[in-house]
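Annual report, structural modelling task.

Input specification for the 5-O-phosphono-beta-D-ribofuranosylamine complex:
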Amino acid sequence: MRVAVAVSGRGSNLEALLNALGPEAPARVVLVLSNRPDAGALERARAHGIAAEVLPDPADGADWLARLDRHRIDLLVLAGYLKLVPASVIARYRHLVVNVHPALLPAFGGRGMYGRHVHEAVLGSGARESGATVHLVDEVYDRGAILAQGRVPVLPNDTPERLAARVLEVEHRLLPAVVLAAAAAGHPVPLPETVESTS
Ligand code: GRF
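The model returned the following structure:
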């Protein structure tokens, strides 16, 4: 299964996915796309010898599709990609686009809910647990069907940074598990609730 990963930031989820997909894996990351030329994730891609391309206009669906076609992409993964994917791309790749989100959707999702904002909102709500979600992507932020979730405790002395680090551990296990299951099934499939972190 030929995978493209869209990123906007440092790329720790991309790195976790690349580490999980060994040479014999049924899926391979062959393209990394970013809306930001300075995204650290692009350097990670280049270090792994993977095509790394910057989207001059992230809203230009025709440009996306030309790149995805050129690399014969089967599955599109959003890993810290902060823009909305154009509707024409979603239409062409319906049920073949997944995103990892650092909270237990449907709570703490939607426009503006990314990075530190998410963890601040979780702590502000008094929630006793948080976690990560991998879901299908449609035309609306964080609305698509949930494929997998992993829960973590919210601890008394948590800061947004501490909680984010605990959730990221789960993300780094959950996203590769979803991609490997998609490669085995030929398309993304729901996973049983599995991944826990106690620390
Ligand atoms: C992750 O927490 C992801 O859930 C969110 O953005 C962050 C990206 O982190 N959408 P990284 O760039 O993969 O390290």
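The longest strand covers residues 129-136.
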